[in-house]
Design goal:
heterodimer; A: DNA polymerase, domain 1; B: Aldehyde Oxidoreductase, domain 4; Aldehyde Oxidoreductase, domain 4; binds FE2/S2 (inorganic) cluster
Chain lengths: 152, 706
């Protein structure tokens, strides 16, 4: 067991976990930040996406010791701004169904739009294709992304 | 540990609105006048189990079905609110625990709206009438001169107003009226509108508590090691190394395997990986997919039990052209995005569970049975769930969590890994279909026969001696509307030791695929357009024919006849769950790869409660069906499921999602089901489109072109 000090949603938090513990479980079990979801544990589904220094990363395959000193943002951090255009568009277009994959979808999109407010269709496709949704909300995600890009 | 409060916390509805639709009925849940009993707060009016109003005017609606993405948490309260005449924005929602007083809570079979359409509106109307009566008595006014609006009763003669809260006490003393009059659909204010989902904000902000997110005081975390083969039994185990893993506190045997209890999920997983267990395969070894296939083939050569018959398909007719094909589909897994999990606390002989279940009453009785306690000592709280698709109708995860809590003496959260979810599921059974038909010299279809061979879920799990006339495998085979003079519909069941269960639309994932593909084959044999061929076989007043015509029209079936090379268009129909659906799919086939470009879907589900929810269910159904058609296959090898995660059991991705064009028929027929109706026609529409594009007929799913 070791202590790690992480910067999560701009707050420093110290956790006492084993090295090699995936960030996902540190967030969920140690810090009760359960908005980051477990879907596959293998980096395949994207339900667990968080931002590491502004980049979308899969927290299920990041060891805790590798993110000490980085700035970590979770869906809860993004939701500190509930009026974020993504949230507003998501509500307006009623994108989600069960909602389980949606934090991963939103976190993935948020970095994409931050890095490039007017991404090309291919850039959007490449990024969003990596996040699975079993409920099949893809068409609405596509519409929401189009709306967000248009409004930029 | 704020989580517990969050679950119990009542949720305020936030709403907006848009367009409309309209009419009438179904089953019945008895209402009860829960008059203030001694010791109760006399100021809560509870005219039915589905709602309560307190003296501050706060209306609480109890949602007794499970929210798994289909929107019942929004749509069911709409039914009550509509009749109650209450401001939608001022409603609180409570998720019901498992309790028979609500009637069925089983969230499956596309029944939530169909079966509650009448009872919930009656519940709302009854409360409204009692509140109006209380006000009229107070004012000494005639009931006809009083009306309810947005939480108030108004005296139309003098515009006097009383809030529902002010009337709670008096209304509670009134007898519950029988035969209340429900609104004329043309007066609906909420039903038919695109009302926003009540649960969106919390879910997208990451605040909503799904089953996997539940935390209760003193809770530990658990993982289960199971025998590698299906139905394997633990002979013995050695938990010494597992116990040495940091944070692991207990290693306990339960009926399905050996559980490791630790102070975090990750440590529970690690401990589980360090367990050594010895297993025996046992007598119920699961046959390989290959062996099951051989058995299906063998049985396909028999006649099967006849479910339905018309004319005589065995008599040969002069100059008839015979068509014959065999279709086959594999096992499928539900794979909801949230893996199985459950929180349980066993204390002083009582169990309390927080379960993401579609079947709360079953979870309650199964847990009671497994623990050997009375159902009254089991409380099941229903959590939000990350998809269900039928998987959460089975209560295995709830039983496991309860057993672990009892064995370890601690409240626990059990989490399955994705691999376990994939390997220890309850699969959609495989099936084979022998289709035969014939066309006469005038190019009219004169014979149609279908023999389905599949394991029966009911027979394997509930009724080994199920009489053949009750075989569940006939779902989707009988009652076809096609007017063909000679028809024979039959079925044969086979046995399997692979756990099988209901997956979104159940045998309608299989039978309509075979039937609608084969009807297409017959259309081509008759040299007819697949749309026109179907249309001419359907009776004139048929709602199915209507959706077919609308789908053909909306998709440009006739007007845009010529698609570029490599593209094709296919059509298919489905009737079930009291609804009707037609879909037209357009595909591009290039280098043996299929891309579904567009699906036009038309549904007639009678009165539409919330068009937005119907639309999203249609989109979701199409994605679900395409995952199965293009990719889904669970194979059994060496007594175990071969697949383990989303890399070898792939589901549809963002880029593979076609454009879905949604249309619904506005009418006043009784409400039909929605959640499953869009699944069955999709695979055959796509396969028919592939035939149109390539001339290659797909008779086996998943689609493999090379
Ligand atoms: S849970 Fe991390 S990618 Fe699936
Ligand atoms: S909304 Fe349910 S998995 Fe995406």
């Amino acid at each position: 067991m070791s202590k790690y000090t992480l910067t999560i949603n701009q707050k420093k938090q110290t956790v006492d976990v084993d090295s090699g513990t995936p960030l996902l479980w540190v967030l969920r079990d140690s810090l009760n930040l359960t908005g980051t979801k477990y879907g596959c544990g293998e980096g395949i589904c994207g339900s667990c996406v968080v931002h590491i220094d502004g980049k979308a990363e899969r927290s299920c395959i990041l060891d805790v010791e590798d993110v000490v000193g980085n700035s970590i943002t979770t869906i809860e951090g993004l939701a500190d701004k509930p009026d974020h255009p993504i949230f507003k568009t998501w509500i307006e277009l009623e994108v989600m169904q069960c909602g389980y994959c949606q934090p991963g979808q939103i976190m993935t999109l948020a970095t994409l739009l931050e890095q490039n407010p007017k991404p090309s269709r291919k850039e959007i496709d490449d990024a969003m294709n990596e996040v699975l949704c079993r409920c099949g909300t893809y068409q609405r995600i596509r519409k929401a992304v189009a709306k967000l890009v248009e409004e930029k | 540990m704020k989580k517990l409060n969050e679950i119990k916390r009542r949720e305020f509805i936030k709403v907006v609105g848009l367009s409309g639709g309209g009419l009438f009925l179904a089953s019945y849940v008895p209402l009860q006048n829960v008059l203030a009993k001694p010791g109760d707060d006399p100021k809560i009016f509870t005219p039915s189990v589905f709602l309560k109003i307190d003296s501050n005017g706060v209306v609480t609606i109890i949602v007794h079905r499970s929210e798994m993405g289909q929107g019942v948490k929004t749509a069911l309260p709409m039914l009550i609110a509509e009749e109650l005449e209450v401001d939608w924005k001022n409603i609180l929602l409570e998720q019901a625990d498992a309790d028979r007083k609500y009637g069925s809570q089983t969230t499956g079979g596309s029944t939530s709206i169909r079966r509650n359409w009448e009872p919930l509106r009656i519940a709302g109307a009854t409360a409204r009438i009692m509140l109006i009566t209380a006000a009229a008595n107070k004012w000494n006014a005639a009931i006809e001169n009083c009306e309810a609006e947005k939480g108030f009763v108004i005296n139309k003669l003098n515009n006097e107003k009383l809030s529902y809260g002010d009337l709670v006490e008096d209304a509670s003393k009134l007898p519950v009226p029988k035969d209340v009059k429900l609104k004329d659909p043309k007066d609906f204010k909420l039903i038919g509108k695109r009302v926003h989902r009540v649960d969106t904000p919390d879910k997208i902000y990451g605040k909503a508590i799904f089953g996997i997110d539940v935390v209760i005081p003193g809770m530990l975390y658990a993982a289960v090691k199971r025998c590698p083969t299906i139905n394997g039994k633990v002979l013995n185990f050695d938990g010494t190394i597992a116990k040495s893993v940091t944070g692991v506190s207990e290693v306990v045997q339960i009926s399905s395997g050996v559980a490791v209890v630790a102070n975090s999920t990750w440590r529970a997983f690690n401990g589980r990986d360090k367990l050594t267990i010895a297993c025996v395969a046992g007598p119920n070894v699961a046959k390989s997919s290959e062996d099951i296939h051989k058995e299906l083939v063998n049985k396909s050569k028999t006649d099967g039990f006849v479910f339905e018959k018309k004319g005589d398909v065995s008599k040969s007719i002069e100059d008839e052209e015979l068509v014959e094909s065999i279709y086959e589909v594999p096992f499928l897994a539900h794979a909801p995005m949230e893996p199985m999990n459950c929180v349980a606390k066993f204390e002083e002989g009582k169990a309390e569970l927080w379960a993401p279940t579609q079947n709360p009453q079953n979870a309650r009785s199964e847990v009671a049975k497994a623990l050997g306690i009375s159902e009254n000592d089991v409380t099941v709280h229903v959590t939000l769930m990350g998809g269900g698709f039928g998987r959460r109708l089975v209560s295995d995860f709830a039983v496991e969590a309860a057993e672990i809590s009892r064995a370890s003496g601690k409240p626990v959260k059990l989490t399955w890994t994705r691999e376990e979810d994939m390997k220890f599921g309850w699969y959609r059974p495989p099936s084979m279909h022998v289709l035969k038909g014939s066309i006469d010299k005038k190019n009219n279809p004169i014979k149609f026969s279908h023999h389905v061979i599949a394991p029966s879920i009911t027979q394997m799990r509930f009724a080994p001696n199920l009489p053949p006339q009750n075989y569940d495998i006939q779902e989707g085979t009988v009652g076809l509307e096609y007017q063909i003079p000679n028809m024979r519909i039959a079925g044969t069941t086979i046995k399997t030791n692979v756990p099988i269960s209901w997956l979104r639309s159940v045998y309608n994932t299989q039978n309509p695929f075979a039937i609608e593909s084969f009807i297409d084959e017959m259309a081509y044999s008759a040299n007819k357009d697949p749309y026109g061929f179907r249309r001419d076989l359907l009776p004139d007043d048929s709602r199915l024919k209507n959706v077919l015509n609308v789908a053909a029209q909306k998709s440009g079936w006739k007007t845009e006849k010529n698609l570029p090379k490599g593209k094709g268009r296919g059509i298919a129909l489905f009737k079930g769950y009291d609804s009707f659906c037609a879909q037209v799919a357009e595909v591009t086939v290039k280098n043996n790869k299929v891309k579904v470009d567009r699906v036009v879907t038309v549904i007639d589900c009678g009165i539409v409660v919330n068009p937005d929810l119907v639309e999203s269910q249609m989109e979701g159904s199409i994605a679900f069906a395409l995952s199965a058609a293009l990719k889904g296959e669970i194979t059994i090898e060496g007594g175990a499921v071969k697949q383990s995660n989303f890399d070898d059991y792939e589901i549809l991705t963002y880029n593979e999602m076609p454009v879905v064009e949604f249309h619904y028929i506005k009418n006043t027929y009784s409400v039909g089901g929605v959640g499953e109706v869009g699944v069955p026609p999709c695979a055959p529409a796509v396969c028919n489109a592939i035939f149109a594009a390539t001339g290659k007929r797909i008779r086996k799913l998943p689609i493999r072109l090379s």
